[in-house]
UniProtKB/TrEMBL annotation:
UniProt source species: Rheinheimera aquimaris
Keywords: ATP-binding, Nucleotide-binding
Domain Mg chelatase-related protein C-terminal as annotated: residue spans: 398-489
This protein's record includes keyword ATP-binding: yes
Record InterPro entries: CHLI-like (IPR045006), MCM_dom (IPR001208), Mg_chelat-rel (IPR004482), Mg_chelat-rel_C (IPR025158), Mg_chelatse_chII-like_cat_dom (IPR000523), P-loop_NTPase (IPR027417), Ribosomal_Su5_D2-typ_SF (IPR020568), Ribsml_uS5_D2-typ_fold_subgr (IPR014721)
Pfam families for the chain: ChlI, Mg_chelatase, Mg_chelatase_C
Magnesium chelatase ChlI-like catalytic domain boundaries: 189-387
Protein name as it appears in the record: YifB family Mg chelatase-like AAA ATPase
KW Nucleotide-binding (keyword) present: yes
Length: 500
């Protein structure tokens, strides 16, 4: 028959909308016309498909070929439509029966030799095919990653001829390498950090409730070491969280390690990163560092060295857990439920009250951070220099494994009570799951007004106090929990001290 229909998938944010590849071969002068809002990379598929078919031994029709990528108003980009276009031409020219395509979707870029090259975004494609009840044929490298999606039949192919033989039921496609056994790779241990018991306590609270954390202290006190050890005391990703994270890495053209893909991502962009690098963007919207940190940690070292405008773009995602990217031609929404961990020195010289920086210089340095941005960080602590003799002592520090046990117990309480971490509670949920005794509520409100803190800070202190109570396996938040949560506002106290 002269008409063939092949199913494929486009890329639109985290979605993989269905694209119907319609191929019609008619009489007329030889031509190859591609319609349906294709971008330049898709239009170039005409030459790739022709060479791939010829070099694979297929007859390329000497007639007028029209390929329509429907729906016409959906932008298409990349070489992912090469394989379905080639199959459509093979079917429309009578070299393959159309019924062999039923129940399958195809994505893949073709080399001129007919080999099938990887595409970007295989995880969303596999999820969409599963929801549509179809099997999917992908390049072999993509098929290995797509195996992570449960309840979907994935086939991996390395050459156009393999797909042709498979559709003719002559030969099975090559077996996809089995997923490696899930292992937990060794991570930096908290026992490596000498002293800093106060900072370790706050790190444990941050891990228990997924709270944002800011560490203020002189250079070399262990702020970066502490941040790098946070993933090791946090609960592993659930299967659903790991799949969501893998989908983001997939559309970014990155790959998660299949052996420890339940490990929480840890991203540490340099302070020269732009706002687009952090949030995402581009003519074809791509996820940025905050989305790549979804369900994980975004560590910003030397925080004041980041441009203020760059940091302020994080304010909305910190509250909502999503980022909206709008361009003239395209819009996209990416999840960004990350845990921010930041580190900074107390002055431009690296030390506080060392005589080398005046209060005015320190204020100028700290004013690079906007008040609304700092207001969104629940835990703000000072990491001081170690006392004399601490480094040479051979004391046994608590390991990450023992801290993780307490964190897991606290997190299980939260999931059983409210189904999410404490930091993700909304205003109405705080009233339901974090009730305060009347005297404690008045105490907290009086303290907030005395120090001129915001209503957002009021709610964040309650959520931190809830995490402290959970670590102690206590159902009721009491005054001691609130006072400890209030003590973790070091940067605000320093700024207030310098102003006075």
């Amino acid at each position: 028959m002269s008409l063939a229909v092949v199913f494929s998938r486009a890329r639109h944010g985290l979605d993989a909308p269905l694209v119907t590849v319609e191929v019609h071969i008619s009489n007329g002068l030889p031509a190859f016309q591609l319609v349906g809002l294709p971008e330049t990379s898709v239009k170039e598929s005409r030459d790739r498909v022709r060479s791939a078919m010829v070099n694979s031994g297929f007859a390329f029709p000497d007639r007028k070929i029209t390929v329509n990528l429907a729906p016409a108003d959906l932008p298409k980009e990349g070489g992912r439509f090469d394989l379905p276009i080639a199959l459509g031409i093979i079917v429309a020219s009578g070299q393959l029966a159309e019924k062999s395509l039923l129940g399958c979707e195809f994505c893949g870029e073709l080399a001129l030799s007919g080999e099938i090259r990887p595409i970007v975004g295989e995880i969303p494609v596999a999820i969409a095919c599963r929801d549509a009840g179809r099997e999917v044929v992908l390049p072999m490298l993509n098929a290995q990653q797509a195996q992570q999606v449960p309840k979907v039949v994935v086939h991996g192919a390395e050459h156009l001829l393999q797909v042709h033989s498979f559709l003719l039921a002559q030969q099975a496609l090559p077996a996809i390498p089995a997923l490696p056994a899930k292992v937990v790779t060794s991570q930096p241990d908290l026992a490596d950090v000498k002293g800093q018991a106060h900072a370790k306590r706050v790190l444990e609270i941050a891990a228990a409730g997924e709270h944002n954390l800011l560490m203020l202290g002189p250079a070399g006190t262990g702020k970066s070491m502490l941040a790098q050890r946070l993933p090791g005391i946090m609960p592993p990703l659930t299967e659903q969280e790991a799949l969501a994270t893998a989908a983001i890495y997939s559309i970014a053209g990155l790959q998660r390690n299949l052996t420890d893909w339940q490990q929480r991502p840890f991203r540490s962009p340099h302070h020269t990163s732009s706002a687009v690098a952090l949030v995402g963007g581009g003519s074809v919207p791509r996820p940025g560092e905050i989305s790549l940190s979804h369900h994980g940690i975004l560590f910003l070292d030397e925080l004041p060295e980041f441009p203020r405008k760059v940091l302020d773009v994080l304010r909305e995602p910190l509250e909502t857990g999503v980022v909206h990217i709008s361009r003239a031609a395209r819009q996209a929404e990416f999840p960004a439920q990350f845990q921010l961990v930041a580190a900074l020195n107390p002055s431009p010289t690296g030390h506080h009250q060392d005589g080398r920086a005046t209060p005015e210089q320190v204020m100028r340095y700290l004013n690079r951070l906007s008040g609304p941005f700092i207001d969104r960080i629940e835990l703000q602590i000072e990491v001081p220099l170690l006392p004399k003799g601490m480094l040479s002592q051979h004391t046994q520090e608590e390991s990450s494994a023992s801290v993780r046990e307490r964190v897991l117990a606290a997190r299980q309480l939260q999931l059983a009570r409210q189904g999410k971490a404490n930091a993700r509670l909304s205003g109405s949920e705080i009233a339901d799951f974090c009730p305060l005794q009347q005297a404690d509520a008045r105490f907290l409100e009086d303290t907030i007004h005395r120090f001129k803190l915001s209503a957002r800070t009021y709610h964040k202190i309650i959520k931190v106090a809830r995490s402290i109570a959970d670590l102690q396996q206590q159902n009721q938040i009491n005054r001691a929990h609130l006072m400890e949560a209030l003590s973790y506002r070091a940067l605000e106290r320093l700024i207030s001290y310098l102003k006075n």
